[in-house]
C-alpha cells in the first residue's frame, strides 16, 4: 500500500494560501484534532511558517508526514537540489516524507525534472517522490522513466469534475491519486444532493464529498482555519457511502467544473 494511502495519511492538512499566524493557528488546531500529514510547497511561500508550526506542535518527527513541492521555476539543474535543501532548512527537517514536482514543465518534457527529483531521493532529501497535475500520458511516461516508486499524482479531484481517465491510469501505472480542491473551493455546496445524502448518515455535505473521494481510492487534502471545519474534515472515517449513493455522486461529475486550468495557470498542461 502506498504511503499516501495508509490510514493515517489519507487525510492531509493543506496549507495554501495560509501564512504567518493564521497558518500557525490552523496547523496547531489540526495537530490537536489528529492530523499528522501536512502539505506545503515552495510556491506557497510558507515553508518556514510551516516548519515553525510543526516544531510548535511538539509532535515527534516519526509521527509526522510532510509533503512539499518543487516550483517549476526551480526545475533547472543549477537550482533544483539547492531549492530542495532550502525547503528542508525552512521546514527544519533533514528529510521530507514526499517531494513532488508541483507542475509538469511548460514544454511537456518531463524527463529532466523527473530525473532531478529522483536524484533528490537518492541523496536522502526525501523518502519518497511524486508528481502533481500530470496527465494520463505523463503518468505513463513517468512510470517508464524512473524505477523508484512514484507514490502519488496530486490533482484537482472533486465530485464536480470527471477524473475517470486519471483513475484508470492510476490503476494502470500504480501511481495513486491524491486530491486538491477537494470541495471545489466551496462550489459543491451549491448542489443540494450532498446535503441530502448527508442527512441519512448524520454527516455534512463536505463530509459526504470527502468520503466519496476516499472511496474512489484517492487521498484527500483539505484546508480550513475554523476548528469546527478542521474537525469535520478529519471525521470522515467512521461511515461508508452505499453503492447507490456513490453512483448518485458519480453522476455529478458530468458537471465538468474545473477550477485549475490554463486561465488560472497559463503553463498548465492540456488536461484529460
Short description:
Helix content is 39%, strand content 15%.
Number of helices: 10
CATH architecture: Alpha-Beta Barrel
Question: Structural class, from helix and strand content?
Answer: alpha/beta
- Estimate the mean pLDDT confidence: 96
Question: How much of the residues is beta strand, in percent?
Answer: 5-15%
The proportion of residues forming helix, as a percent range, comes to 25-40%
Structure commentary:
The model has no long low-confidence stretch (mean pLDDT 96). Helices cover 39% and strands 15% of the residues. Strand 4, helix 4 and strand 5 form a beta-alpha-beta unit. The chain has a single domain, classed as NADP-dependent oxidoreductase domain (TIM Barrel, Alpha-Beta Barrel), CATH 3.20.20.100. Strands 7-6-5-4-3-2-1-8 form an 8-stranded parallel β-sheet. It starts with 10 loop residues before the first strand and ends in a 22-residue tail after the last helix. The protein has 10 helices and 8 strands. The protein has 272 residues and is of the alpha/beta class.
Essential attributes:
10 helices, TIM Barrel, alpha/beta, 8 strands, 8-stranded parallel β-sheet, single chain, 15% strand, 272 residues
Write the layout of secondary structure elements.
Elements: E1 11-14, H1 20-33, E2 37-39, H2 47-57, E3 65-70, H3 80-91, E4 96-101, H4 111-122, E5 126-132, H5 136-145, E6 150-156, H6 164-173, E7 177-180, H7 192-201, H8 205-215, E8 220-222, H9 227-234, H10 243-250
Parallel strand pairs: 1-2, 1-8, 2-3, 3-4, 4-5, 5-6, 6-7
Helix pairs in contact: 1-2, 1-9, 2-3, 5-6, 7-8
Amino acid at each position: 500500500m502506498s504511503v499516501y494511502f495508509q490510514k493515517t495519511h489519507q487525510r492531509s492538512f493543506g496549507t495554501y494560501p495560509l501564512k504567518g499566524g493564521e497558518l500557525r493557528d490552523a496547523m496547531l488546531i489540526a495537530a490537536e484534532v489528529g492530523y499528522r500529514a501536512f502539505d506545503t510547497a515552495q510556491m506557497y511561500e510558507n515553508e518556514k511558517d510551516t516548519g515553525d508550526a510543526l516544531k510548535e506542535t511538539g509532535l515527534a518527527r516519526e509521527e509526522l508526514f510532510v509533503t512539499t513541492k518543487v516550483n517549476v521555476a526551480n526545475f533547472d539543474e543549477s537550482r533544483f537540489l539547492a531549492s530542495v535543501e532550502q525547503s528542508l532548512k525552512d521546514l527544519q527537517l533533514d528529510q521530507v516524507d514526499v517531494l513532488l514536482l508541483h507542475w509538469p514543465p511548460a514544454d511537456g518534457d518531463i524527463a529532466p525534472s523527473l530525473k532531478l527529483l529522483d536524484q533528490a531521493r537518492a541523496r536522502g532529501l526525501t523518502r519518497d517522490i511524486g508528481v502533481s497535475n500530470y496527465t494520463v500520458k505523463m503518468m505513463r511516461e513517468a512510470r517508464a522513466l524512473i524505477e523508484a516508486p512514484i507514490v502519488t499524482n496530486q490533482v484537482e479531484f472533486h465530485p464536480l469534475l470527471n477524473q475517470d481517465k486519471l483513475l484508470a491510469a492510476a490503476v494502470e501505472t500504480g501511481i495513486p491519486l491524491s486530491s486538491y480542491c477537494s470541495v471545489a473551493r466551496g462550489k459543491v455546496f451549491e448542489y443540494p444532493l450532498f446535503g441530502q445524502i448527508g442527512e441519512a448518515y448524520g454527516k455534512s455535505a463536505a463530509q459526504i464529498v470527502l468520503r466519496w473521494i476516499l472511496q474512489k481510492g484517492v487521498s484527500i487534502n483539505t484546508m480550513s482555519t475554523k476548528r469546527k471545519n478542521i474537525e469535520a474534515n478529519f471525521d470522515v472515517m467512521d461511515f461508508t457511502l452505499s453503492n447507490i449513493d456513490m453512483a448518485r455522486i458519480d453522476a455529478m461529475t458530468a458537471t465538468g467544473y474545473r477550477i485549475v486550468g490554463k486561465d488560472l495557470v497559463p503553463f498548465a498542461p492540456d488536461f484529460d
